[in-house]
Amino acid sequence: RAKTSAEIRQAFLDYFRANDHEIVPSSSLVPTNDPTLLFTNAGMVQFKETFLGHERRPYSRAASAQRCVRAGGKHNDLENVGYTARHHTFFEMLGNFSFGDYFKREAIQYAWEFLTEVLQLPPQRLWVTVFEEDDEAANIWLEEIGVAPERFARIGAHDNFWAMGDTGPCGPCSEIFYDHGPEVAGGPPGSAQADGDRFVEIWNLVFMQYDRDEHGRLSALPRPCVDTGMGLERIAAVVQGMHNNFEIDLFHHLVHSAARVAGSADLSNNSLRVIADHIRACAFLIVDGVFPGNEGRGYVLRRIIRRAIRHGYKLGIEEAFFYRLVSPLVEKMGAAYPALEQGRAQAERILKQEEERFRETLEQGLKLLEGDLRRLESQTIPGATIFKLYDTYGFPVDLTGDIARERGLGLDMPGFEQAMAAQRERARAASAFKVDYKETGDFEGHTEFTGYDHLQDQGLVTALYAEGRRRNHLEAG
Ligand code: ATP
Ligand code: MG
Ligand code: MG
Ligand code: MG
């Protein structure tokens, strides 16, 4: 019998405990003392100050299973969910860390031993990349570990050089991939087809060895550090012989439960998978104190909830259903996360309320959209439609984007921006007579949302800011 996700998590922590690592509990999804970060998106987040040397801990080696959300900010996988076999909004990152203790050699040895001996993965299935200039790591892999050169690649800075920010600790990284075999589409790391689900990145080993100053100059850190991260769901898929994360034990129960609620028989239905993904993010965020709202973290949560509800509607579910998946989630993950069990009733109540509220406008909004789409002459949803859905029916722009993508349509974002600008003008004019108009939105995490280069993301940025400045009609009503 293959190990369950819970057993893999435990095996990981046991292995590193046996190698003198302190086991540190997962921190909250809401980072403490870091307004620049929307959500905890990696295991290293709770150790940031230690890596920077600002905080000392009574241990120099640690390991954790960290709950993470990547649904906004620098790491945003929301648009990948339902489209790849390996991305979630919420996932668990297994990590081991060295604070000026061991470095490349031990980090690589530990990772290799854990994968090939503890989990018994066949070495011929594992591919390794290093930063192109990192001869030291290359030698360890090729000469000491004995990885075959044909499954080894040197990669540029885009994928294999990690930095905490524009300045500060940074360094090369080395990634380990698993080859799911020729029946899955995708090419080896570094190739043009690398973005498929065949060669899946399972573990990233970051070697923090430099400090970068404001001129971009690198100087060696006196005590180099190690930060690693391995996705639990991805490694579970490998161990359980599945090519898709949504087929692992953890998701099985959730997908089944969603299918039961939907009266659906096809377990590989994409909407069921999206819902199974989203219930984890939503329930855990609520338990960590994030509530649906119109700004910052709360708005990201609201967007995820509304996407899930729309998928439920698509499956033909006719009443509030999303909250009913909290219990199946608690059954699977409550043992590892007791706070989830404690927060169950609250999560159910909030999700139910949010769904009942949105259902009223969802159906009308979808009807409006269908009508507009019938009249459509181009392959693009007009800005005016996106705005109407957003403003009157509470459709976040990415929700409309999700529908557009399913149908191979584009979004007229400049048109949407224009409609938004016009709306802002009207609000400004009207606000001259109102005292409660919120001129400056306090948008948590806004520093992360700047600098996006995709038009769609820029649109979202504007939408998010705007939403922070005015109250959604649903809130007001
Ligand atoms: P990818 O290139 O596949 O998007 P990444 O390079 O963005 O992954 P890292 O930031 O290196 O990921 O995170 C460390 C590990 O966490 C990854 O190797 C992977 O196993 C896991 N991981 C990252 N993002 C996700 C996600 N959205 N869902 C599930 N696991 C993830
Ligand atoms: Mg990624
Ligand atoms: Mg990657
Ligand atoms: Mg990576």
From TrEMBL:
Keywords on this record? Aminoacyl-tRNA synthetase, ATP-binding, Coiled coil, Cytoplasm, Ligase, Metal-binding, Nucleotide-binding, Protein biosynthesis, RNA-binding, tRNA-binding, Zinc
Annotated localization = Cytoplasm
Query: From the UniProt record, which GO molecular function terms apply?
Result: alanine-tRNA ligase activity; aminoacyl-tRNA deacylase activity; ATP binding; tRNA binding; zinc ion binding
Alanyl-transfer RNA synthetases family profile domain boundaries: 3-477
Q: Which family does it belong to?
A: Belongs to the class-II aminoacyl-tRNA synthetase family.
Q: Any idea what job this protein has?
A: Catalyzes the attachment of alanine to tRNA(Ala) in a two-step reaction: alanine is first activated by ATP to form Ala-AMP and then transferred to the acceptor end of tRNA(Ala). Also edits incorrectly charged Ser-tRNA(Ala) and Gly-tRNA(Ala) via its editing domain.
User: What is the protein's name according to its record?
Assistant: Alanine--tRNA ligase
Organism expressing this protein natively:
Nitrococcus mobilis Nb-231
Q: Which residues of the full protein are shown?
A: 3 to 479 of 869
